[in-house]
């Protein structure tokens, strides 16, 4: 089944169109990356899918269902977004327990919430002692684990990942990437991920779309990326930049 099908997507902020004629499809279970220079519109595509950027034309379907332009409760159970900055994305005065229980309460999920919270802490590799702590008592990596746990509480099938490791220390990035890889396998998740980092794409993704100036310029298998066999001149430039030691 197709998890995401996007056709002719133009997204605007006010009068400014920031993506043009975007088209790609992501299969269920696939991990698909959006790469490209800053400002090329990658995050905007995720926001349109999530209902956070509401002015768009074209079509977005998620698991065969056309997406509306706003927040949709049924959709939230299937698809969740994880943001770049785990410092900003967690409410400073809510404990981990409150953060993780909230989606269950909002969506009227029955059963023992405490048990589900503990099981999710186990799943994301966080000791249960963190359950009643606040975000400021956690490290960046631990906070990102909480953000991932929150996204998974409603057992969605699809995660939209916006640079999920770029705000973290290099030493912690690998841990979170390993976690995402394991969770995808264990829970049969589909990922659509925005990143600047081509090694991350090689590690975690099956295919990628290269974006420039709001358009997709190439869609390729990750094997092509690993072999340096992308064909678009701009994609090749990205690979060269990524291989330059001064680039982070
Ligand atoms: N809320 C907003 N209002 C107006 N313009 C915006 C808004 N968010 C993003 N933009 C503009 O839309 C364009 C695309 O931004 P977007 O964040 O999607 O790019 P990106 O490829 O994800 O970049 P980065 O890699 O830096 O996150 C940019 O020119 C940006 O300045």
UniProtKB/TrEMBL annotation:
<protein>
    <submittedName>
        <fullName>ABC transporter ATP-binding protein</fullName>
    </submittedName>
</protein>
<dbReference type="InterPro" id="IPR027417">
    <property type="entry name" value="P-loop_NTPase"/>
</dbReference>
<dbReference type="Pfam" id="PF00005">
    <property type="entry name" value="ABC_tran"/>
</dbReference>
<keyword id="KW-0067">ATP-binding</keyword>
<dbReference type="InterPro" id="IPR017871">
    <property type="entry name" value="ABC_transporter-like_CS"/>
</dbReference>
<comment type="similarity">
    <text>Belongs to the ABC transporter superfamily.</text>
</comment>
<keyword id="KW-0547">Nucleotide-binding</keyword>
<keyword id="KW-0813">Transport</keyword>
<dbReference type="InterPro" id="IPR003439">
    <property type="entry name" value="ABC_transporter-like_ATP-bd"/>
</dbReference>
<dbReference type="GO" id="GO:0005524">
    <property type="term" value="F:ATP binding"/>
</dbReference>
<dbReference type="InterPro" id="IPR003593">
    <property type="entry name" value="AAA+_ATPase"/>
</dbReference>
<dbReference type="GO" id="GO:0016887">
    <property type="term" value="F:ATP hydrolysis activity"/>
</dbReference>
<dbReference type="GO" id="GO:0055085">
    <property type="term" value="P:transmembrane transport"/>
</dbReference>
<dbReference type="InterPro" id="IPR050319">
    <property type="entry name" value="ABC_transp_ATP-bind"/>
</dbReference>
<feature type="domain" description="ABC transporter">
    <location>
        <begin position="1"/>
        <end position="238"/>
    </location>
</feature>
